[in-house]
Amino acid sequence: MKTLSGKLVWVEHASADPAEATRFYSALLGWDVASMDVGGQPYQIIMNAGQGIGGYRQAQPGEHANWGIYLSVPDVDRSFSEALVAGASPCMVPTDFSPAGRGATLLDPTGAMFSIWRSSTDDAPDAPVPPGHWCWHELHATDDEKALRFYESLFGLEHDSMPAGEETYYVLKSGDHARGGLVRNPGGAGPSLWLPYVLVTDVDAAAHKAETLRAEVATAPENIPGIGRYAMLLDPQGALFAVFLPERQ
């Protein structure tokens, strides 16, 4: 099976009420759901444009609502061991989720949760995505240099950098393909977390509609010169995500 190391291959919403999450995102983004048996348990798959792009699950006791990212690796067990040596902490040891694949979850050295995944099928090739798909993800870290060393080492990535106010924004890359972003939280404040972005056709309309659905606008719509327009939103259960529309080239 072909894997693209470090590529975002799945995004999963955890909450106390997955049914409420399903209703909210269906109303906001038009997502459908499909049920699949994974590891002997029913699992709700997020469907957009006929493709599975993520899932909903019940949060663990004490776990706040969140969107969790899954990054592809060719060997989950090996990457899990390498991550621990590099300073990560285990959350879920390598586990089979038949028939979908094998995965594990960790906290990186800055405290951000992420998962590694080896699908039972080929990773989708790098290509433009339709509205409603995940189009980007970035780590907001307490220590950008530590995080950069960790992710480049674990996934064999390189980076480009650019100014981002008083901080530096890093674009993690595999060859010519961007794999995600990384930036230090202002002043190095916590917590560290991964933020996923959904492609939309109108950022302002999406933010307004989210508010009517009882979400909170964490960062009002604004432009990133030369890149696009985005907004950060907190869904009604408190999970943070962003919506994004790139500039026309």
Structure description:
Strand 2 and strand 3 form a beta hairpin. The relative contact order is 0.17. The radius of gyration is 17 Å and the shape is globular. With 249 residues, it is α+β, with helices and mostly antiparallel strands. It folds into two domains: 8-119, 2,3-Dihydroxybiphenyl 1,2-Dioxygenase, domain 1, CATH 3.10.180.10; 134-246, 2,3-Dihydroxybiphenyl 1,2-Dioxygenase, domain 1 (Roll), CATH 3.10.180. The chain contains four helices and 16 strands.
Q: Structural class per helix/strand content?
A: alpha+beta
Q: What's the oligomerization state?
A: single chain
Spatial arrangement of strands, main beta sheet:
2-3-4-1-5-8-7-6
| Largest beta-sheet details | 8 strands, mixed
CATH homologous superfamily caption of the largest domain: 2,3-Dihydroxybiphenyl 1,2-Dioxygenase, domain 1
Distance between termini? Answer: 34 Å
Contiguous low-pLDDT stretches (5 residues minimum) are none
What's the total number of strands? 16
CATH level 1 name of the largest domain: Alpha Beta
What is this structure, in a nutshell?
With 249 residues, this protein is an alpha+beta fold. It has helices at residues 18-29, 76-85, 144-155, 203-212, and strands at 8-15, 32-38, 41-48, 51-58, 66-72, 89-97, 101-107, 113-119, 134-141, 158-164, 167-174, 177-184, 193-199, 216-224, 228-234, 240-246. The protein contains four helices and 16 strands.
